[in-house]
């Protein structure tokens, strides 16, 4: 397609008309367009030859038909070339420069008739594409007639049949690609091809005085070809740019329709929080429905209306929730459990727990007691409204206050709390207690009859407010002064009886109303002097409510920064937003699909040891110090929790709380303990949901009250006191105390977590600390199972292999074996990770299995939605139900370093926006190693979830997607639930990861799966598949090839004298290269990743925040990093395609806290970056010294700035992103180490890290195993060094000889004269012995 359009565009543009349709009005141009059929048939011939060359080994006696078909295809395609060529030649016969004759018209019609016959199969394919169900019907039937019809087009195969999607999906992804292709072709014609035509014609007509070799006689066709080469290369790959642009905006549109990013901050959270209880009830709580009512149009319509009301707060059920509603209690249990887990994870402090939790009803408060961070400043705003509406009636004032739900609740809760608190601190038997009781009764009565403003002075409220704040301040202090309490109460009483009532009352009236003591002598002293009875200081229930009241009374800011921790804010915002997104209804836990989680583990870190945390590098930085620095607030929260649990001095953290410290650090790394904790949140969430499913209204109401009491009595103590030893339970939720007993059994039936610890048996035998840590994890988590391979030695010095599943029995208090399955041989025949998954897959249970890598995490609030996600299997997406449920990821390593942030931003756009577009509308999403959920039974009967062949399946994840698509599966993507994911954080780690992925894509190019998908998918899905998998890496390589083609071409033009002649004739060929340079520079700045990042960030965080983040990344040299990564992908992808030999590269996933030596960086980047950058730099330097165009500084900069940027990025990135990369002392050490490495010859057992020679041989290993074509192509590519050296040498010789040529000629004459004279003398015999 691209080549055919290029040919047509050049033909049309060569006529030099303003618009293409003007050129097409010329008869000659229209006839020249017919040469497309010759090119088309030639490409078919080339395809037939490639098919025959690649598949000849498949031909045997049983598959003789395949051989016949390949031969016939070659013969037929060659015949079409001859037919089209002959017919086209006859059209021009006797018509050059003359008027078109009737015979010529007849020959044109004949050519078109033949062309119609040629395209007839394509028209049939188009008809079947428009009606996809007919194509699926034909492919899925084993009828002989269908086999005969399709025998010519594709070989018979079991897989890859019936891959067509429904008509609606066809229309969506067809429109997408039609728009992309239309934009690309219009851009290419007007801004790439057309501007090159006039300079090309001028170049062909220039007479060039070649200073050295001339390739085509007196023609300049080679020079013109060099001008066109970078244009053609960019033309072939810039469709990747257009895909990136359109997919960004389409992904943003799909995200908007899914209601992503509607809640981004605390302010937006406040607007929706009052509807959370209804949203949780609607989405997360099971709803009893008749079986025949599910999935009907009526039920779907009702759900849509219900969800619309819920999202925008329409309808009375969602106006407000009062404290007597059951769903409010359910919501409180769930919300408080989330906040409790946040505190266990140390991402919020004790103070923030009190601000965020939803306390149960107490003190007879009549409204929902919203979290304090929602009620902040609301009471002060209500007082200001009352001050402004002094003369307004009660109804109007209350209407203005009630317009804000939180303000209404703040006013009522503050009044009820003040009333309860003031009565609680007085002796019930005292007269003062009865006086305050009568006062509050009068206030209540005036409010009830709507005469509050007529009875009381609104202007006195600020005075009462100030005194109440003073009273609460006294009560919240550790040491409470009773005299101050008495004085404050006395002041409050005097304001109430003297200034608060509108109708001034004398002492007699006050006594009559019960508002003054009966004994006149009591008025002489302080009224409350003998009535104070403060609650005990250990009554945390009372003082916790006092602190809450203090917050409501005094908060003057909007608390937009609560919680302080960015991760806590992000998780709250995402969970809140997801409650208003479209998701299936959740069934009861007993009726949900059972599922398992599977994690492959080899020998990574389980738990950081004491030595690992304390060991310092050469700069004095330890892992713990590094974590304390980047997680400063979380460390403070951790130490606050430890003090509450009993430590007095900080040094005790290394003794009594050592395991807590190790867990705290491990939960911030990419360790197995972090992954296990996250995955076991499923079990914890299911237990809570099972309790809520079966609990009655009374259980929930009483449980909420009891749980609130337990939290107050055994939870968080005063913030001003550090002596408390109370603690939050880490092992299990406090909600577990309310469970009835059946929840555990139900959850164990529905959920299993299997960790495939391949060498766990060997670790136990060696008493490896990792084995002890894994055993401890099994002790802590009852749903955790460990699968490993056990090697058992037999008597005959042989070994037997078993797959073993073990668990920890809580009753027996030891590890017990559940299953033992004998294997036919050793496990590791193929790649390690997929083999590890395959042997443990048999131990999973249920209908679904989620694949989780060892560097992933999970969150409790997201685990609550797993029931909804599994219900997706019951819904059709297109014409099929899903077989893989794609899940959104959050990259949690973005805060570790600038490189980690760059990698996180790139990955986030890929796993969100990129996957969203692939699933809808493109319908080509695969499995990319993310936390996808597989239909377990579907995959068990179709080869499993992992292909494990060595080398070819190094990227085993995506082959599961290939297998799923080829066998008629359906992959979807869902973003109302997310899972955490860690990425590499150092440049060397990232480069090894990029190398592994690029090599894996190179192997995919060579795989039969990609071949089958390319042949079986329709044209537009094939485009989607190519440009989102191997095509991305191929086009990345094309970018680098474009730079090479451009620079080598310009160097030839400069050295050969073409540029001198072009400038002398005033040619404008440099202007034609503007399109190349602009696009090339945009690509090198990282357009592939920049635009999706900006769009996705804008969608979820706002446009201004996205622009700020992108600008900050540029200042931190993200473009240098992305350009460097492009070189990594290009090198390893190209090497793998040429020579194969991809291999797994362990990245370590640890924290980068130490300097990498230059020798290590050289070993890693010499072949992929340094050598290429030096080569390009030399070309640019030579070009600058020889090109007449480069004499003008601005022109040279404009032509080469993007290439210089690439060179500098490839050379400097390993130093810029290396810790202490420019430290002088380390530079000296690096130089010494590098020289020792260079000159050390080593021996037989030396390693590449010790000897340059050994490293060099390892770098050439791929040439020993490559095929003949690989060796030939490697030689051809390396010949550029030979030619460049010859060119430079010849130019150097010329520059050396030309200036001294006259002197040389003179010396030559002298020497010739001397030689002649001596000869004459010899011949005459005058010189003799």
Provide keyphrases for this structure:
single chain; 1329 residues; ten-stranded mixed sheet; elongated; disordered C terminus
Explain what this protein looks like in three dimensions:
The protein has a ten-stranded mixed beta sheet with strand order 5-4-3-2-1-6-9-8-10-7, with helices on both faces. With 1329 residues, the protein is mainly α. Strand 3 (784-793) and strand 4 (799-809) form a beta hairpin. It starts with a helix and ends in a 5-residue tail after the last helix. The longest helix has 39 residues, at 167-205. It is 62% helix and 5% strand. The chain crosses the membrane at residues 71-91, 111-133, 175-193, 222-243, 1025-1047, 1194-1217, 1292-1311. One of its GO terms (biological process) is (1->3)-beta-D-glucan biosynthetic process.
Query: What's the pLDDT, averaged over the residues?
Result: 81
Q: What separation lies between the terminal Cα atoms?
A: 87 Å
- Give the quaternary arrangement of the chains: single chain
Low-confidence stretches: 714-732, 1072-1086, 1297-1329
- Overall, the morphology is elongated
Q: Estimate what percentage of residues fall within beta strands.
A: 5-15%
Largest sheet: 10 strands, mixed
Based on DSSP secondary structure assignment, what is the total number of beta strands? 10
Helix coverage percent of residues?
A: 55-70%
Strand order of the largest sheet: 5-4-3-2-1-6-9-8-10-7
